[in-house]
Amino acid sequence: MSNIAAALVKELREKTGVGMMDCKKALTETNGDMDAAADWLRTKGLAKAAKKAGRVAAEGLVAVAVDHAGAGGKGAVIELNSETDFVARNDQFQALVGSIAALALEAEGDFETLNASAFPGAGESVADHVTAMVATIGENLSLRRSAGLSVDQGVVAAYIHNAVVPNQGKIGVLIALNSAGDKDKLESLGRQLAMHIAAVAPLALDTDSLDPAVVEKERAVLTQQAVDSGKPPEIAEKMVDGRMRKFFQEVIFLKQTFVIDGENSIEKILKSAADELGAPVSVAGFIRFALGEGIDKKAEDFAAEVASVAAS
């Protein structure tokens, strides 16, 4: 099997914790057999990392990196997971996170490009270096995701919530603002808007970019509620429309009430900023990474664990 699907490589990497190039080689050598490929990796001395890769890594750090050079700007955000918060506070782990965030900025946030990038001074790719650090740090590590934003004119601002060290913490936000206005003022505005995003977690920038499945599900729930209330169909329809407008105000970034002043919508805040700066301000996009979101964590029963140890 000369052509190995990227999905197979990704699956083997998630299963074993081994670097992508080694995973691809293992799958090539075993004609795409997942179990045989995992065994092949173990025979090549990667068993220690493979063993640790079975553990859930839901702790770690989110990190941001930004570049304000020139008329525009760019930024990147990454999530590197570890098994425990203790390791996330380790200087060696934090240095690794910082280096990867800087490389993500060069890669414009592209995950595949980042993984394939050469890690400085290591003689190997980022993906392989993260795998090598599993043995050094002593826990399963996983570079889970990365993303980036850029603007030709304006700024990309960043915010880290619950920062452990500068630019690293539990929640990372990037926001890209298009404007010819003063960059320092734009940066200040961008940071405040990024803080809002960290706190409120909007689902989308505007109504058009909201996932249609989310809209459909919400409307179905509200419609059923209206029907169950016994209201006539024409009244029920108006109820649903009104509640959908409220839903959009809650989840759409531009329609949300700015948490810092508690009064104006984000749309109004941008309009006021444009008047102050003498140039229009628009949001090109935003990214919000919260550490461990979406990862299935093993439920720990400490009392049962202690009882089990005592009984053994």
Q: What global shape is seen?
A: globular
**Number of distinct helices:** 12
Order of neighbouring strands in the sheet with most strands: 5-2-1-7
Helix content estimate: 40-55%
| Quaternary structure annotation | single chain
CATH topology (level 3) name of the largest domain? Tetrahydropterin Synthase, Chain A
Q: N-to-C SSE series? A: HHHEEHHHEEHEEEEHHHHEH
Residue fraction in strands: 15-25%
Low-pLDDT sequence parts: 47-54, 308-312
* Gyration radius, in Å: 23 Å
How many E strands?
9
CATH architecture tag of the largest domain? 2-Layer Sandwich
Descriptive report:
The chain is an alpha+beta fold and 312 residues long. The protein folds into three domains: 6-52, Ubiquitin-associated (UBA) domain (Helicase, Ruva Protein, domain 3), CATH 1.10.8.10; 59-199 and 284-290, Elongation factor Ts, dimerisation domain (Tetrahydropterin Synthase, Chain A, 2-Layer Sandwich); 211-249, GTP Cyclohydrolase I, Chain A, domain 1 (Orthogonal Bundle), CATH 1.10.286. The chain has helices at 6-16, 20-29, 34-52, 85-88, 91-106, 111-116, 126-137, 183-200, 212-228, 233-251, 266-277, 302-311; strands spanning 59-67, 73-82, 118-119, 124-125, 142-151, 154-161, 168-169, 171-178, 282-290. The strands form three sheets. It has a four-stranded antiparallel beta sheet with strand order 5-2-1-7. The longest helix is centred in the N-terminal third of the chain and has 19 residues, at 34-52. The chain is globular and about 70 Å long. The N and C termini lie far apart (49 Å).
